[in-house]
Amino acid sequence: MAKALIGHLQHTDPRTPARLAAENARLRARVSELEALALRLSRENDALVADAAHDVVPEADLQPV
């Protein structure tokens, strides 16, 4: 149904491909932003987990005897 609608719009409105290309570019940029945010949050979370683990188990307890 969506393909039929897009195909129909392309024949009646010559600007549709340009709009679709612009929307596609905008969405790709947003996905890139969200991927970068997810990576940053993951790194921050890893650092917080490491700090919390350090607080729970001091390094002196981790040294072999």
Helix run count: 3
Largest sheet: none
Give the radius of gyration.
Answer: 25 Å
Helix content: over 70%
**N-C termini distance:** 70 Å
Shape: rod-shaped
Average pLDDT value?
82
H/E topology pattern: HHH
What's the β-strand tally?
0
Structural class: mainly alpha
| Residue runs with pLDDT of under 50 for 5 or more positions | none
Beta-strand percent range: under 5%
Keywords: Coiled coil
Would you kindly provide a brief summary of this structure?
This protein has helices at 2-12, 16-56, 59-62.
Descriptors:
65 residues, mainly alpha, 3 helices, 0% strand, coiled coil
Please specify the SSE layout and strand pairing.
Blueprint: H1 2-12, H2 16-56, H3 59-62
Coiled coil: 24-51
Keywords: Coiled coil
Structural write-up:
This protein has helices at 2-12, 16-56, 59-62. It has 65 residues and is an all-alpha fold. The chain has a domain at 16-54. The longest helix is centred in the middle third of the chain and has 41 residues, at 16-56. The relative contact order is 0.06.
